[in-house]
Amino acid sequence: VQASNIVTLLTDFGDADAYVAAVKGALLSASRIAHIVDITHEAPSHDIAAAAWLLRAAYRYFPAGTVHVAVVDPGVGGPRRPIAARAGDWYFVGPDNGVFTWPLRHESPVEAVLLEARRYMRPDISSTFHGRDIFAPVAAHLAAGVPLGRLGPRFDDPVLLDLPTPVIKDDVITGEVAHVDRFGNLITNIDAGRLDKWLADGDARIELCGESAPLAHTYSDAAAGALVALIDSSGMLEVAVREGSAAARLGAARGTPVRVTRAARG
Amino acid sequence: VQASNIVTLLTDFGDADAYVAAVKGALLSASRIAHIVDITHEAPSHDIAAAAWLLRAAYRYFPAGTVHVAVVDPGVGGPRRPIAARAGDWYFVGPDNGVFTWPLRHESPVEAVLLEARRYMRPDISSTFHGRDIFAPVAAHLAAGVPLGRLGPRFDDPVLLDLPTPVIKDDVITGEVAHVDRFGNLITNIDAGRLDKWLADGDARIELCGESAPLAHTYSDAAAGALVALIDSSGMLEVAVREGSAAARLGAARGTPVRVTRAARG
Amino acid sequence: VQASNIVTLLTDFGDADAYVAAVKGALLSASRIAHIVDITHEAPSHDIAAAAWLLRAAYRYFPAGTVHVAVVDPGVGGPRRPIAARAGDWYFVGPDNGVFTWPLRHESPVEAVLLEARRYMRPDISSTFHGRDIFAPVAAHLAAGVPLGRLGPRFDDPVLLDLPTPVIKDDVITGEVAHVDRFGNLITNIDAGRLDKWLADGDARIELCGESAPLAHTYSDAAAGALVALIDSSGMLEVAVREGSAAARLGAARGTPVRVTRAARG
Fold first, then answer.
1. How deeply is A139 buried, as exposed, middle or buried, from its count of CB atoms within 10 A (0-12, 13-18, 19+)?
2. Nearest to B82 by CA among B67, B100, B72, B97
3. Cα dist from B205 to B139, B201, B235, B266, whole Å
4. CA triplet B189, B176, C78: central angle to 5 degrees?
5. Rounded Cα distance, C183 and A42, in Å
6. Are the beta carbons of B186 and B208 closer than 8 angstroms?
7. What is the band of A266 on the pLDDT scale with cuts at 50, 70, 90?
8. Given Cys at both, which of A36, B96, C223, C259 links B83, Cβ 3.0 to 4.6 Å?
9. Closest residue by Cα to residue B208 from B253, B168, B265
10. Helix (H, G, I), strand (E, B) or coil at B21
């Protein structure tokens, strides 16, 4: 896939320090890429699964050839490998710690390389800040058209996270809350495609924290303050309260179990 | 007005989720606009009046032809209409819920259209994320030069908020705090132009929360820690504490009444 | 040094107001610079020393010719002077209050001017928002190639902060924590170059808050949860806890004393 000259950044560096700016300076020093877009820098510190989820929700909306850099990297300076990959229409650059699990598992083709070619990195590489010294310059060169294969040798075993997946048993799917967003919406790990197929023309009842919600089309289908389930904008089952916080109302958090029960349409 | 190839974004999506990035991906996928500028993504959730105020403080400082996208949209998926408008030298894209009240009321000419032309939107439109699926691609096309009239039919009754306005009675104006900024400065809904005309060559005393402040020229006219009133950078009467927080000192918030009394210069 | 058409912004305006957007609108209205990069807008309010530290950690990673704008400006509207400077390979624009202490002291050559040429500013200059009305348009013009000397007359006495510096006495250096980052890492004011030279081939023991830490190479050299000292990515001695917060563990903050003791290698 042809490079797009766009680089995105996803980190746990926060917006109050100068680390993100140092990464952007290193990007622009390596190549005058056209656009640098922040996914977020408020990923929970050292939480690779949370960062993988955030990347999942954004990467596919970017033009083909976009280079996505993710630096949630508790193992920096240790044995974890710096990598780049192509997965489907996009490129990914960062530590080999599972942060790219979603595209590596769900897109194709996949091709991954170990970052070894020093000429695409900063001359001095610190032991604590590979985002600035390795990933940023490599991403800038990739975005500018340097072929993936020039960055280092191919390898075939990138780290993939063992994420919790929903369990289907007869008329019940048991999943869990995978992410709580700013509005207190609870996005589950239950995929709409899977849910639709399993439901066929049955009705669904969604239960969590001792309450139940009907499956609706959009927020406006519910009364203000009412609990509602719907398919969220990234294709996952979501539980929400119209103009309110489902997380606060239910006391739910990442990991809270969610049950979907199907019944023949009455 | 000619398109500027600049798009700004104002939302209540927060900086910790991936929603803003999905919007930016959709923008760049529709057109390689030159600049995407964040106004803020920390508008209070579902608070249309607060978002309208934030937009007011920023839109006119951008080049003519800039497209301002505002997505504070509690009615997404319901009957509220997606719109675009030209008001004065700028374009506006978002839900028809009053978020564009300030430019629609204070700029001219105004021309508004309903967003109906599907070819300028993403092919799949979710029921919960029009920011990504409708507003972003439409804004990108508008910024790239697509004429407003191509986006859909004209209409003449965009929603305008019924915002509190100051009341003048003899020698007293009664207004209120419209916004509290990060520094704890209290920006009121009392307009400098109106205030000046009414004051003529009289003196003004500003009172709120049982304290009074003189009308000064800039922060430095006050002693550190002293309460001071001045005309803020967006043309509104502001009450501040030099190098301190007027909000904390007075216990004031949005809606707190503010009185201005005029007296012949002594 | 040739202009790079890149401008960075460092302010204490926060991300929730529209002030930063107004600055960016003013930048783009003055010149269509290629890249606007945020260093941070979450510098502590009115804290010039903290802003100077944040600028220190980022400015040198940007391409030569980048214009760095810093607006932490408690004295706006008062007698403090608006300035621009070249220091080494970069340009700096903002108030003359010490925020540029690091580059002005450590880079060369240095050339500073008072901002007097009105034609490079917005036509109306407010008394409370020089970031938008003076610094942004001046920075845009500088980034687009206007020579420094056109902005106003040279001057030779820019304000420099009197920052705490480490004291060496025999086998002990006493410094302090200069910055606490998002991860709770404690970055001290003890410079790696100085430390290395003084240590020669001795061993170092780092002590603060009644605990001591060995000097390691990277986070991964420590057990998870263990206290460790290392040279941070900006060249300063740092005290950290692997995958944890040293600030929380030790109760340390900016200003906490740090002692380094050297001993002959055993």
1. buried
2. B97
3. 45, 13, 18, 13
4. 65
5. 11
6. yes
7. low
8. B96
9. B253
10. helix
Inter-CA distances, C252 with B149, C190, C198, C207, C249, Å:
60, 16, 25, 12, 8
Helix (H, G, I), strand (E, B) or coil at A219: helix
Q: Which residue has the tokens 């229409």?
A: A89
């104006």: which residue's tokens? B173
| C101-143 tens-digit pLDDT | 999 999 999 999 999 999 999 999 998 999 999 999 999 999 9
* Residue range B149-163, pLDDT digits in tens: 999 999 999 999 999
Q: How confident is the model at residue B111 (pLDDT cuts 50, 70, 90)?
A: very high
- Residue-wise pLDDT tens digits, A64-95: 999 999 999 988 888 899 999 999 999 999 99
> Which residues does chain B have within 8 Å of residue C24's beta carbon, measured at their own beta carbons?
37
Which tokens go with B73?
């949209």
Give yes or no for residue B184 having a pLDDT over 90.
yes
Instruction: For residue B111, give both structure tokens.
Output: 């021309």
Contacting residues of A for C220, CB less than 8 Å apart: 75-79
Cα separation of A239 and A187, whole Å?
7
Q: How far apart are the first and last CA of chain A?
A: 49
Other beta carbons within 10 angstroms of residue A256's beta carbon come to 18
Which residue in chain C is spatially nearest to B7 when comparing CA positions? C25
Which distant-in-sequence residues (6+ apart) come within 8 Å of B157 by Cβ?
Answer: none
Asked if the peptide bond before residue A109 counts as cis, ω within 30 degrees of 0, the response is yes
> Mean of the per-residue pLDDT values for chain A?
94
A186-200 average pLDDT score: 93
How far is the C-alpha of B130 from the C-alpha of B73, rounded, in Å?
A: 9
| Rounded percentage of chain C residues whose pLDDT exceeds 90 | 85
State chain C's mean pLDDT as an integer.
94
Under an 8 A CB cutoff, do A76 and C220 touch? yes
* Beta bridge mates, A66: none
Cα(B211)–Cα(C213) distance, integer angstroms? 53
A22 contact C CB<8A: yes
Q: How far is B58 from chain C (nearest CA, A)?
A: 5
A37 touches C: beta carbon within 8 Å: no
Is A69 within 8 Å of A93 (Cβ atoms)?
yes
Cα separation, B48 vs C236, whole angstroms: 46
The pLDDT of C212-216, averaged and rounded, is 89
Other residues' Cβ atoms within 10 Å of the Cβ of residue A155 = 14
Tell me the ipTM for this assembly.
0.95
Closest-CA residue of chain B to C31: B63
Residues C125-136 have pLDDT tens digits of 998 999 999 999
Q: Are A177 and A186 in contact (CB under 8 A)?
A: yes
A81 touches chain C (CB under 8 A): no
Report the alpha-carbon distance of residue A90 to residue C211 in Å, rounded.
47
Q: Band the pLDDT of C264: cuts 50, 70, 90.
A: confident
CB C110 within 8 A of CB C104: yes
Mean pLDDT value of segment B45-74: 96
Alpha-carbon torsion A107, A113, A118, A124, what sign? positive
Residue B63, token pair as written in the block: 């080049």
Whether B182 sits inside 8 A of C13 (CB atoms) is yes
- Does the CB of A39 have a partner CB in chain B at under 8 Å? yes
Residue C266 has pLDDT above 80, yes or no: no
For the range B152-155, what are the long-range contacts, defined as Cβ-Cβ under 8 Å and sequence gap of 24 or more? B152/B84, B152/B113, B152/B114, B152/B115, B152/B116, B152/B117, B153/B113, B153/B114, B153/B116, B154/B111, B154/B112, B154/B113, B155/B81, B155/B83, B155/B112, B155/B113, B155/B114
